[in-house]
Amino acid sequence: MSSQAPTDTLWARVAKLLLLLLLQLCTPGHAPHASPLPHSCPTVCICTSDLLSCSRQTLQHVPRALPPTATTLDLSHNALTQLHDRWLAALPHLEALHISHNQIKDLSRQAFHNASYLRHLDMSSNHLHAVEMHYFDALVSLEELLLYNNRITRVDENAFAKLSGLRKVYLSWNKLTTFPFRSVQGLGNYSLRTLDLSSNSLSSIPVEELAALPENIRNGLYLHNNPITCSCPLYLMLQRWRQRGFSSVKDFFEEHTCKVSDKVPRSLIKFLKYSHMFENCSAGPEDEHPVPFPVMVGQSVLLACNTSLPATATTYMWISPHHEPIKHPGNSNRSLEVYRNGSLKIAAAKPWHSGVYVGLAINSPHNFSRLCEVNMTVHYPKPDGETFSTGLTTLLGCIVSLLLVLVYLYLTPCRCLSCCKKPAPLSPPQECSAQSSILSATPPATDGPNRKVSANKHVVFLEPVRETQNGKIRLALGEDFPDPKHPKVLQLKSDSESISSVFSDTPIVS
Fold first, then answer.
1. Terminal Cα distance for the chain, rounded
2. Residue 287 gets which letter from DSSP?
3. Exposed e or buried b per residue across 381-391, where buried means at least 16 C-beta atoms within 10 angstroms of its C-beta
4. Helix or strand or coil: residue 128?
5. N or C: which terminal CB in the chain sees fewer CB atoms within 10 Å?
């Protein structure tokens, strides 16, 4: 009995130690190698590898458990009214966020913190009343911002100051009456290409500020469907944009309207389409065409603007035809260089360097003034020996050829002396009886034994009548000329010998 008691006590101690060890291992706080449980997809959402869609679920709050692998989150067409601070901390890889068609009225200061990789933000069709400076300043990688169809009446001057990568901003279909255009001057030096302010309540446009904007912003600055007061500076500015082929005017030509009278709200006219009432508007210095500047391929070019600004407080920048901002010392490959005095040098002009170059002076980060515009055209040099154009050379060749044909047809000289000589008087038949025949493609009626006939060939024979010797004609003298040395006899003999030398039995083929 005494030996069994210690044994039971020992087993009890071992069991207690095993139980304590098991409890320690099962405790979550003391599990050193325990891996976190994977995030599950919210029941109201659809999850794929990197897409999380929670649209059209009448959500009033953002779901708590969100998978961290999502790069695109869709919360559109819900009933969201606010976004709590740092709610995107669970989505470190988020690049696109769609919150359109909700009821969000404003944003807290840290609503978009922990979203440094966000590039696309769609907050269209909400109830926003303003765009404050702190709304989007944490989105340092933002490229596209969609705020159309809200109730925005004001945009803070520094609302986009920290968004250096911003490319497109859509603010159409709001209630804007003014817009701080100076706030986007610096953005145009980087990447801003589209600023849509159409279909608002803009009543006036600062033409001078718009003229100082970089060309890439003006090309994508949409101002149509606004009740802007009609004025000659506004008309001349938009007409010039149209001549330059800016998409903002070219694509919405008839939608540009202006208000004739402030007292008559509905006195809107399509002033670009019906421009006859502005025909007396005269262009000022700011509305003149760029200065033409033709150069040859390979030529070194130096573009300079006349300026009286102090060099110590002013820096210069040029906008290339490809909307590339160029500051001192130049672009990346140094094909374009900017000197400290504002001059632009092109080492060797190429055809792709053609276009309008805009020179700007920068007095502060948001103060730009346009200096000049130069329209450079690069040509290939013409060859030195090229005196006539191709069309003129062809015409002269045709005229010369026609003259040669006429000369050949009507002014060709005789081919034989016997044809050109004055025909001798015919001798009596008894004095010189010689018969010649010219064969053509049709054989003659009388065929001799020595005649040869060939189609497409002309053969001439002389058939002696009296007597032949070695193919020559022996003249038969009549009784009236007994003397062989008589002049007529000599003349006939001479003519006969010349004829026999030309017309012999040997055929002459032509």
1. 157
2. G
3. eeeeeeeeeee
4. coil
5. N
At 505 the pLDDT is: 47
pLDDT tens column, 298-344: 888 888 776 555 555 677 888 888 878 888 888 888 888 888 888 88
Rounded alpha-carbon distances, angstroms, from residue 49 to 70, 164, 376: 7, 30, 51
HSE-CB for 354 with a 13 A CA cutoff: 10
Cβ atoms of 318 and 360 within 8 Å: the answer is yes
How many C-beta atoms lie closer than 10 Å to residue 56's C-beta? 13
Task: Output DSSP code: residue 102.
Answer: S
Q: Residue 14: its pLDDT value, please?
A: 60
Q: What is the CA radius of gyration of the chain?
A: 52
Q: Measure the CA–CA gap between 302 and 433, rounded to whole angstroms.
A: 98
Q: Cis peptide leading into 482, omega within 30 of 0?
A: no
Contact 151, 173 (CB under 8 A): no
CA distance 337 to 327: 8
The CA distance from 444 to 462, in Å, is 14
155: which strand partners? Answer: 131
Helix or strand (DSSP H, E) at 97 = strand 96-98
How far is residue 274 from each of residues 246, 254, 255, 257, 486, measured CA to CA in Å? 19, 9, 12, 10, 109
- With beta carbons less than 8 A apart as the criterion, state whether 355 and 322 touch: yes
213-258: pLDDT as tens digits: 888 889 999 999 999 988 888 888 998 898 888 999 999 998 998 8
**How many Cα atoms occupy the beta-carbon half-sphere of 26 within 13 Å?**
6
| 72: helix, strand or coil | strand
